[in-house]
Write a structure and sequence with these properties.
InterPro entries: ThiF/MoeB/HesA, ThiF_NAD_FAD-bd, Ubiquitin-activating_enz, UBQ/SUMO-activ_enz_E1-like. This protein is an alpha/beta fold. It has 10 helices and 10 strands.
């Protein structure tokens, strides 16, 4: 609990997802939260961001959200940094215990993960695109405690609880995105990873090639480019092109720019819970991907390792 009360957490990007994360972490009573956000509140932000009000339109998102966030738990220090994350040097991120990025560009996400690994700072990245969401965790090397109940051979005797010290290693985001799967059969691959894992990567690749913008489902040109990226990405990953079908991509793109409150609540709740688990040092945190499909109501955890 001492670690949690003294923890310094960075939340980069103030969207509906990070509203949920901030709420849960502040209510848990961490030491301080720094909100890094350089953009202003728009009308569209009011749809799912419960920390914002109509009178906040035009204000900095971080400043506006922080006013409401501070009321949740006055003991938690809430700091706002209005500088663009792209202008922050790698050294900026080393002052925090946990760095959490929400909705950041692929380039910045990979850069900051690498910076956090250098300093062994806990790193999380997450995003929500309509009905779908993802979360990635990189703690480099994490030690934690786990309670184990040992059943006694004597009948009627209460089981004994022992505490075991455990650890787990994490791969960088960049290395997991370059994993080669060796052309397994689709059914066998689905037992290891969801097609949504690759669909999110394809969305990132489109953003990288198009100045950060999301594809439009109404644009035939965008859809053709997306399908081409799908074929190229799966070929390089040694995955059959049928593993990510057209319907999944079209459904993902159809609501890619939308913030759906229930989806943000589920992904944000899971993310905040895992951050608190990491800080407490009790039980194993996520290793290393969580993918949520709101249409099916399913959340899957995948351990994606770098290629040997």
């Amino acid at each position: 609990m001492t670690m949690m009360r003294n923890a310094s957490i960075l939340i980069a990007g103030m969207r509906a997802l990070s509203n949920e994360v901030c709420k849960n972490i502040i209510l848990a009573g961490v030491g301080s939260i720094t909100i890094l956000e350089h953009e202003s509140v728009t009308v569209e932000d009011l749809g799912a961001q419960f920390l914002l009000r109509q009178e906040d339109i035009g204000r900095n998102r971080g400043e506006a959200a922080a006013e409401k966030a501070r009321l949740l738990n006055p003991r938690v220090k809430v700091i706002v940094d209005q500088e663009d994350i792209a202008q922050k040097p790698d050294s900026y991120f080393t002052q925090f215990n946990i760095v959490c990025l929400t909705g950041c560009s692929p380039e910045q996400t990979i850069r900051i993960d690498n910076a956090c690994r250098e300093n062994k700072t806990g790193f999380y990245a997450a995003g929500v695109h309509g009905f779908f969401g993802y979360m990635f965790c990189d703690l480099t090397h994490h030690k934690y405690r786990e309670e184990v109940q040992e059943t006694s051979v004597d009948k009627g005797k209460e089981p004994e609880t022992t505490i075991s010290q455990r650890s787990q290693d994490y791969d960088s985001l960049a290395s997991t995105l370059e994993t080669c799967w060796g052309y397994p059969k689709p059914k066998a691959l689905k037992r290891k990873v969801s097609p949504l894992f690759f669909a999110m990567q394809i969305l990132w690749l489109f953003q990288l090639a198009n100045g950060g913008r999301l594809p439009l489902s109404s644009s035939q040109e965008d859809m053709v480019a997306l399908f081409k990226l799908r074929d190229e990405r799966l070929r390089s990953a040694q995955v059959d092109s049928s593993f990510v079908d057209d319907d999944l991509l079209q459904t993902l793109i159809g609501t890619a720019s939308a913030e759906i409150a229930p989806v943000c609540a589920i992904v944000g709740g899971f993310l905040a819970q895992d951050i608190l688990k990491t800080l407490s040092g009790k039980d194993a945190p996520l290793l290393n991907y969580f993918l949520y499909n709101g249409l099916e109501g399913t959340g899957l955890v995948h351990h994606v390792q770098k290629s040997a």
